[in-house]
Every structure is written in structure tokens, then in C-alpha cells.
Amino acid sequence: MKFRQTALALSAVLAVASLSQTARAQTDKPIIINFSHVVADDTPKGKAALRFKELAERSTQNRVHVEIYPNSTLYKDKEELEALQLGAVQMLAPSLAKFAPLGVGEFEVFDIPYMFPSKAALRKITDGKIGAELLAKLEPKGIKGLAYWDNGFKLMSATKPLIQPEDMKGLKMRIQASRVLDAQMRALGAFPQVLAFSDVFQALQTGVVDGTENPPSNMVTQNMHAVQPYATLTNHGYLGYAVIVNKRFWDSLPSDLRSALDGALKEATRYGNDIAQKENDTAIATMAASGKTQFHTQTPEERKAWRTALAPVAQSMEARVGKGLIDAIRRETESLPSD
Asked: How is the beta sheet containing 294-296 ordered, strand by strand?
């Protein structure tokens, strides 16, 4: 732990020392944006990051270079936000649950099961006033929130069929760090296990955990289907990301570069969010064709049973994420049809 903190601190000192030089309006050397994330290049997030790199470099005429570091090659889940705050890395796209340890627990509203009845309902929140207000809460932490990126709605997978909610009882289920996801698994009678994303395949392979929840694209790109014989298309929860930058770095950039990068990010966001559903559909087909995972599509009765089992989670989390926020999202989305 001390070694990691020392390494991060050293990286931060070097980053701060070079900040005034790299962020000048006129410079002979390009400004480097190190963009770290924990998933593969061929996921929706990975592809959106690569598109942002292409667009950012083109729109700034190579005054900015974006270096992409996928698959936790720089930092794992628990390390990356600290690295960003220290200035050791400039850009991230962490899952929304990652902000709760910083004291912004409101982002865990996205983890509440069945909170968003459709993609249209989700988009109304992320593209609207509520989404903007949530991103603004990161600024006192030294973080500038720029955009929301989709991965998609999640499925449940395990070493046994998951037809009814009670089939989850007693299973060790991997989750990312989130009080809401912890409560979700406990409501189903499972035992939540917090693990870094990069460690999940090995944990599934060795039996450290019995199952997990993921959008299909994450599952197939990490080869989880090879060690998960059963999966149920529950669509019980959403996994999305916030694209964020070190605020001091962002504010130090010349205004014309910020404008160009903002435009590049908007286009990359449209691209990534448009392909997310297609990527997940393709992932399901790929995994099914492999013969390694048997997929179950829920009947309306089964879906109702899962909704009923997980309904208490939202109420139990009101104090943590804010009852007002939960109510506001429901008011904004109640008139929209379910997918």
C-alpha cells in the first residue's frame, strides 16, 4: 500500500511540475492526455475511447495526443480515481458506482435495480438536468465530469440456472464496490464479493465466486462465458460510466483546445452510446454460439418475481442516495414505456 501511494504521489509531482509547460496555448510538443480504463478495447467503452482519441487528435491538429490504456494496464478499479485526483493520469471513464467512496453517494442511484424502465428513461436522466447536477457534484473533489457513456443493462450469470430469485440463495456473487449492489445481492439471498474487474475471470475460474452480473459485452470480452455455464437475461440493472478529467488539468488548457476536445467527446459519446446495444446483442449471440453458456430469457411472470424480490432495495437506500433524487428520477421517467 505504501509503495502504491508513493508511486502515485511521485507521478502526481511529475504531472504537476509539467502542467504549466504542457498546457500553454502555444507549444512545440503536443499535450498528452493519458486515458486509463479497466475494460477491453472491443467493448463499447473501449471503442468510444478510441473514437475520442481519433477525433481529439484530428480536431486539435495533433496539438493534443490521447494515449489509451485499456484493461487496467495502468490502474485497477480502486486505484484509478486516486491517480486522477493526484494528476498521475488525466482522463478516466469509471463506472458510476465508483464515486460513492469519494463522498458522492448519489451516483449509486444508477445501481438501484429496475430504476430505469427503458433506455429512453435512462437517456432522459443522463442527458438532462439531473445528470448535469450529478456531474457537478464531482468538482469539489478535483474532478470535471464531461459525459455519460453506456455499457448497457446487466444479466446474471452463475454455475447453476437462475430462473427464480430464490435460485440466487447461497451463491457467492462478484460485485463492484457499491452499497446498493451489496444490498441487491443480499435481498436475493446471495453473498456479495467485491473484486476488481480485472480479477473476475480468475475468481470465476477458480471458484472464489460462483457468479457475477455484467452487460454481455463485458462478459464476452473477458471470456467469462467460458467459466459461467448459465446466464439469465434479467436486465435488472444498468452499467454506465462517467467520462471525467482532472479538473486542474482541464482548466489549464487553452479555451480553444477545451472547445475542440468537448466537441470530440460529444461525437464519441453519440457513437459509443449508439453502438452499446448492438455490441451487447452481438455478445449474447457470440456466447450462445460458443455452446459454453446456456441463456435463459425470462417470462413476464419470472420478471415480476425478480422485481418483487428486489423492490425493497430502493427504499433501503433512500438515506444513502437521497429519497429526493429517487423520487425526481421516477417523476421524470414514469410516463415513458418500459422496454
From this structure: 191-194, 172-175, 211-214, 155-158, 230-232, 294-296
Domain match, 225 and 315 both: yes
pLDDT at 5 over 80: no
Banded pLDDT at 19 (limits 50, 70, 90): very low
Contact 200, 118 (CB under 8 A): no
Distance, CA of 279 to CA of 290 (rounded, Å):
16
For residue range 151-162, what is the model confidence (pLDDT) as tens digits? 999 999 999 999
Which are the contacts of 237, defined by CB distance < 8 A and separation ≥ 6?
A: 111, 112, 113, 114, 115, 153, 154, 181, 184, 213
Specify the number of domains making up the chain: 2
Assess if residue 292 is contained within a domain. Answer: yes
Question: What residues are paired with 64 via a beta bridge?
Answer: 31
SS3 19: helix
| pTM across the whole model | 0.88
Give the Å distances, CA to CA, from 273 to 20, 214, 241, 280.
34, 17, 11, 11
Residue whose C-alpha is closest to residue 244's, from 153, 149, 180: 149
Give tens-digit pLDDT for 40-66. Answer: 999 999 999 999 999 999 999 999 999
Indicate which CATH number applies to the domain containing 172.
3.40.190.170
pLDDT for residue 15: 52
